[in-house]
Amino acid sequence: MGVREWLHACLPKTLRTKLLVMSFVVVSLPIATCGYLLEREGRHALLREKQEKLFGIARTLDGQLGTGFDQWLDGRDAAPDRATAIRRINARLTPFTDVVAEANPGVGVGYYSKALNAIVTYGPSRLFGNTVGTPIPSDHPGWRVLETGRMALETGPQVRGMIMNAMWPIVRDGTVIGYIWANELADDVERQAAVMDRAVLAVSAAGILFGTVLIQGVSSRLSGDVKRITSGLARMRTDLRHTIRPPSGEIGAIAIEINEMAQALLDARSLTENILHSIADGVIAVDPGGVITSINPAAEQIVGVRAAGVIGRPYQAMIADQERSSSALLDTLETGQEHIGIALEYPVNGQNLELNVSSSLMRDSHGTPVGAVVVVKDLTEQSRLKTQIMRADRLAALGELVAGVAHEIRNPLTSIRGFMQALSASDDVREWQRYAPLVVRQVDSLNRIVTELLEFGRPRPPSIRPVQLNDLLREVSLLAGHKAGGRVVLEPAADLPMVEADGEALKQAVLNLIINAFQAQPASGEVHIATAADSGRDAVITVADDGVGIPPENIGKVFDPFFSTKADGTGLGLAMVHRIIDAHNGTITIASTPGAGTVVTLRLPVLHNATELS
Asked: Which of 125, 134, 457, 513 could be joined to 543 by an S-S link, Cβ 3.0–4.6 Å?
């Protein structure tokens, strides 16, 4: 058995055991952590207290020393030898160090003279008097105190054994003349710390034991409540009407929610069945073997079958035209590929129905395919109505076009008729010379209307090729500036991709927009043209002016043939622009504020790669 399997086998299996283990960890870990931190902090506090005590004793001894060691010589010899000096100083200071040592049991105190390089007193003297006169070893930390003049605390083996030693420099007139120590055996410190550790351990163990007992009772009750819910859920698998008796507390709230969920599922099942029986789209479901498991009334009517006669039979056997009609659902069942909005004709009772079919897989809660479903929409009536509407729209558009043409032609014809009536009664050549140019202008107006109408109704075959819009717009800007007598400001985008278009047709469209823009503003106005690339999908052209703008009620009519607010306009310019842009699979939009100007935006699909040219 591998380590992974062994660990898995050791993990608790029941909910109660898991709760006990988890709760034990949750309770014991914080208590143990707090106990550890408390013990650690207590030990540090004890050490700080010992440190402050030892240094306090050393400072007291420093104050007792006075001006220095020379003060404690009796003065009988001007320069006593080393041994005599040590003996005299020891005799004077030992009573004081013994008193301090006796007042602090377990503490050893003393003086060390740098000049004599010897311990001059060590109390209590009855225990450590034999060390007087001896120098400290060369590796003793006291030498560091003598050299640096800074106090130090060391724990380790020293003169009297394993001790905590506080060393205080004796500084007189800026010179270190020795040091004072106050130490305590480390065993004494450890004994006090051990007492604290045992107390912390006892409190932690009591807390963990109490928490374990409490968890045992809570988990026992909780596992009983959970068992009641699991037993109820097992019954609900076969009977959603079964109700779980809710226990008290939050578990009871869960049981109540489960009961409500079961009722909601029961209602949803009924609602789903009602929806399937009520919707106008046909729905047919099959199992993984292609056998029909469900069919709603709409599908029965569309396909021309009865549910009792097809449920339990293969889907292919129900479809008359297997090659075309069954492919969507069966292909989805075999490959998992969904089909959306497939249009097909299905023969039923001597007529062809126009159907829209969508198919997708059905999956269970684990994502495993359990069959497929097809949704069938009967678009026959919708298609018939759409055809009638399109025919009516064409007739209406034709009526508007004829009315517009009649209106545009009637005005010049009326003028010509008036002029000819006036001339028919006159023999004066000057009259003929006077009215002849007017008649010619009216004829030219008729010719212009007919020409534009022919261009609008019978466009020339397009010449599609890659077009760089910036270059095309520069050419159109120059042409429009001369033709309209205004200033065109071009702001081309440097990264504008090429488009696949009829360059001459686009020139005509942009030229019409520029001319309209100049006609909508004073003679000193400017027309701004800018290009941009929109996310690499479209090339955008904007033509903006600061003219009079378009009233809101006219925005929806500007692209209608023969709609114009200008006295000499034919109303075919913007209609021509719209037709050109639409032929390039582009879009045109107008944003206008009366009195502030108009912005026309053209969007054309960009040319992505060279293969699009073939």
From this structure: 513
What helix, strand, coil percent values describe the chain, rounded to 5? 55, 20, 25
Cα 228 from chain centroid?
A: 42
Distances (CA, A) of 106 to 52, 160, 240, 291: 16, 12, 81, 97
Beta strands of 364-479 (E only): which ranges? Answer: 369-378, 464-467
Query: What are the backbone dihedrals phi and psi of residue 566, each rounded to the nearest 5 degrees, phi first?
Result: -95, 145
DSSP-assigned letters across all residues of 295-323:
E-HHHHHHHT--HHHHTTSBHHHH-SSHH
pTM (whole model) above 0.90: no
| CA proximity to 521, closest of 488, 482, 479 | 488
Average pLDDT of the segment spanning 486-506: 86
Q: Is 58:166 a contact under the CB 8 Å cutoff?
A: yes
Distance between CA atoms of residues 516 and 520, nearest Å: 6
For 71, residues 6+ apart whose C-beta sits below 8 A from its C-beta are 65
Q: Where are the beta strands (DSSP E) in 349-495?
A: 351-363, 369-378, 464-467, 487-491
DSSP classification of residue 291: B
Nearest 10 degrees: Cα torsion 578, 580, 582, 583: 160
**CA of 291: how far to CAs of 182, 281, 320, 321, 327, in Å?**
98, 20, 16, 17, 15
> What are the counts of helices (DSSP H) followed by strands (DSSP E) for the chain?
18, 17
| Residue 459, SS3 per DSSP | coil
Mean pLDDT of all residues in 477-498: 80
The vertex-453 CA angle with 447 and 459, nearest 5°, equals 125
Instruction: Provide the token pair at 51.
Output: 């440190």
Per-residue tokens: 310: 């097809």
Output DSSP code: residue 209. Answer: H
Question: Strands of 339-348's sheet, edge to edge?
Answer: 292-295, 282-286, 369-378, 351-363, 339-348
Cβ 32 vs Cβ 208: under 8 Å: yes
**How far is Cα 529 from Cα 470, in angstroms, rounded to an integer?**
10
Summarize pLDDT for 350-390 with one digit per residue, the tens.
Answer: 677 788 888 888 888 788 888 888 888 888 877 777 777 76
| Residue 169 contacts residue 149 (beta carbons within 8 Å) | yes
> Tell me: the pLDDT tens digits for 583-611?
888 899 988 888 888 999 999 988 765 33
Residue with tokens 């077009």: 467
Tokens of 41: 């902090």
Is-cis flag, bond preceding 124, omega within 30? Answer: yes
The amino acid that residue 467 corresponds to is V
Q: Which two tokens stand for residue 583?
A: 């032929």
Q: DSSP class of residue 431?
A: H
Handedness of CA 396, 399, 400, 401 (dihedral sign): positive
Instruction: Look up residue 557 and give its DSSP letter.
Output: T
Q: Which of 44, 123, 137, 46 is nearest to 90 (CA)?
A: 123
371: CB partners within 8 A, 6+ apart: 285, 286, 287, 288, 293, 333, 361, 362
